[in-house]
Known about the structure:
Strand 1 and strand 2 form a beta hairpin. The protein is globular. The model has no long low-confidence stretch (mean pLDDT 94). The relative contact order is 0.27. Strands 3-1-2-4 form a 4-stranded mixed sheet, sandwiched between helices. The protein has one domain. Helix content is 35%, strand content 19%. By secondary structure, the protein is α+β, with helices and mostly antiparallel strands.
Amino acid sequence: MLGSGPDWIAKAGRVARGFSATTHRARGAKHSVYVVLLHDARRSDPWGLYVGQTSRDPDLRFDQHKAGYKASSAARRFGVRLLPDLAAHLNPMRQWESLEIEAALAEAFLAAGVPWVEGGH
């Protein structure tokens, strides 16, 4: 994932792999959850994660954030790259479940020691 990245990144990976989607690849499933690595050098612990959900391809959605289109301020300003290993096993899923998993995953990352988590609405 990150090589010599933050200490908590491996734990975040284990947490994410503990999630599953009941509507994964169900008929009509077209939503995805995605995770973006954040970096803000002004913070004492500069690394964090943004958790989002979309009906678009996560790569396209990340590009939209960076371009400022319907963007999260954190993802636009501090987004480094997607971390597909943290959510690809869940996608696609139905919209209602993507909203639930987005919020639960953000909470789980915080509980696992990720110092800064955005999104997860």
